[in-house]
Structure formats: C-alpha cells, structure tokens
Amino acid sequence: MLRLVARDLAIDLGTANTLIYEKGKGIVLNEPSIVALRYEGSRKEPVAFGAEAKVMLGRTPEGVKVIRPVRTGVIADFEVAAMMLGHFLSRVRRKSLGLMRPRVMVGVPSGITEVEKRAIRESIEGQVREVRLIDEAMAAAIGCDLPVTEAVASLIVDIGGGTTDIAVISLKDIVYSVSVRQGGDAMDEAIINHLRRRHHLLVGESTAELIKKTVGSAHRDYDRQEMEVRGRSLTSGAPSSLIVTGEEIREAINEVVSNIIGAIRQALENTPPELAGDIISTGIALAGGGALLRGFDRRISEELQIPTFVADDPLAAVVQGAGKCLDNVELYQDVWL
C-alpha cells in the first residue's frame, strides 16, 4: 500500500528558478521558471520549459515568445504558471513509484496577499492531493539550520530573483518581517540601463545576468575585475563590444544593494531589544541567489556592524527548509501558514 502513496513534495516557486524536493530523496528538480510558447491565433502551445526555454531568451523566431510566469515572487500569468508547474510535477511523478497524487508544500514571499495565495493554490491543485504554504523566509531559516525552534532570535535575508524577504524569527514564529520587491532581476535591469545610458550599448537579460555573475559585486575589494561585453550599439545599430570593470558594475547595482541593506536595518529597528541582542551573537544569514553576489556579506557586516554569513547552499535554502518540514512534521507543523 505504501507504494501507492506518492512521497510528499516541497516546491520553491521562485521568480528565477523552480526547485522541487521529494521527501526521502532530496532535490529532484531545479529548473529556470521560464516557458517558451508558440502563438497560433488565440491558441498557445508550449515549446519548451525550464533550461531549454532559457536558452531561447532573445533568440526566438516569429510566433514564439519566452515568458516568465512568476514576477516579484508571485504568479503574474496564471495560465502559463499552471502549465509550467504541471510539466515539472509530471516529470517528478514519472520517476516516483507512487500512483496517488502527492501532498505539496510551497514557499511563498512574506506579505503575500490572499488573492496571490489562492492563485498559487489553484495553479497546483489539479496535480496534487493537498497544498500547504510556508513563508519563504521561515523555510530559508530552517534550510540554513538556524535555531528557529529555540527562544533565540535569528535574522534571515532571502535574496531571490524578484523579492528579498527579511525576517526575525524566534520560537517557530516570525517576530518581524518585511518583503522588498527587489532582487537579482532588479540588479540585471540596473546593469542594462547603465550600459544603455553611459555606453549606448543594448544588451539582453542573459548578458546582464552573466555580467553580474562575472564581475558584479557589492564591495570595493572586487573593483579591479574586468570583462568584455558584447551587444548592439544604439548609435550605429551595428554589433559592438566594450570592456567593463567591477567598479562600474558595483556602482550600477548600488541602489538595489542599498535598498536591501536599508530594509535589513528597518527590520533591526523593529526588533525587540532582547532579540536584537541575540542577533549580534547569531549573526545575519544570507540565502537565495542574490547571496552569491561577491562581497554582499562583507558590505552588510561593515555597514550594520553585525556578523554576516552566506548559507552553504543559498540557492536551495528555501526548498531544503520546506523539505525538512516534510521530514519532521511534528517538530515544524506550527510554522505552516
């Protein structure tokens, strides 16, 4: 009978990537949250999902569009999101022995509205038996092995593609949380705008992301790095290239970085004094893809005078935390929304 019951799943439905954790197995899927669609009149036909669709960004023929159905951490295109999740879940279920539909736990941003919660539930319900929601900041804290069940304050900063979730957690509850609708995508956009304004060079999302990963940083110690950037000149219309430095890119994304640090400062100001004292000793934990930006932890530590560290696997912290909730139901059942 146990073989008929599918294992429970945890899903991190992120703006940039979708990760799925299967109970007892670990992470079984990690794909970009992207869908390529072919439009024929009023009909939409999926062409590719995930990594296959991401390769097509900026390179699609006429009649094919590449869509990100999740924006700023919430579903922007309900129909396409349901299509994408259905595809990912069917891929995972094909590898599982279970015949019955699984129960699913989904990470959602702090401050999500009831309408947005319902959209997430409805996009998955056709594929599963039951949908549970967990705050992404709480899931990330559990994934970072912070002492969320103890009477000690922990500060988690989950920097995703579309949102940055910041939360102070103690005794399985969120004492204070704030969600900033800025993250890795806002940094990419800042790089695109900077190159357009200063160098009259037009680059796409994929190139901007590559620049951020190669020479992007939040600290001046990485200013000397350089890379060649290729794009289209806005003055001549011809292909063009130039050399950009780490200092230039740091300045381009500085506003986004400063906004995130400002939100962390706001969270600290709204934390009760006793718990604020705990954070000085436990430090600030960084999770999410944005935590991989060079020097971000050092910049936060210098500006706020609090030890800051990056999670061992920041990209998977949310889904691993939600997975731990599935593996230890009795310990973590109080943290679900």
Determine the number of helices (DSSP H or I, runs of at least 4 residues): 12
Fourth CATH level, the homologous superfamily of the largest domain: ATPase, nucleotide binding domain
Major sheet strand order: 3-2-1-9-10
**Global mean pLDDT:** 87
| Straight-line N-to-C gap | 30 Å
Into which percent range does the helicity of residues fall?
Answer: 25-40%
Q: Give the total of domains.
A: 3
Which H/E pattern describes the elements?
A: EEEEEHEEEHEHEHEEEHEHEEHHHEHEHH
State the total count of DSSP E strands. Answer: 18
How much beta, percentage-wise?
Answer: 25-35%
| Unreliable residue runs | none
Largest beta-sheet details: 5 strands, mixed
Structural class comes to: alpha+beta
Shape: flat
CATH class of the largest domain: Alpha Beta
Radius of gyration: 21 Å
Find the CATH topology of the largest domain.
Nucleotidyltransferase, domain 5
Second rung of CATH, namely the architecture of the largest domain: 2-Layer Sandwich
Topology:
Blueprint: E1 9-13, E2 17-22, E3 26-32, E4 35-40, E5 43-49, H1 51-54, E6 64-67, E7 70-71, E8 74-75, H2 78-95, E9 103-108, H3 114-124, E10 130-135, H4 136-143, E11 154-159, E12 164-170, E13 173-180, H5 184-199, E14 201-202, H6 205-215, E15 226-233, E16 239-245, H7 246-252, H8 254-269, H9 273-282, E17 284-287, H10 296-304, E18 308-310, H11 317-327, H12 329-332
Parallel strand pairs: 1-9, 9-10, 11-17, 17-18
Antiparallel strand pairs: 1-2, 2-3, 4-5, 4-6, 7-8, 11-12, 12-13, 14-15, 15-16
Helix pairs in contact: 2-3, 4-11, 5-6
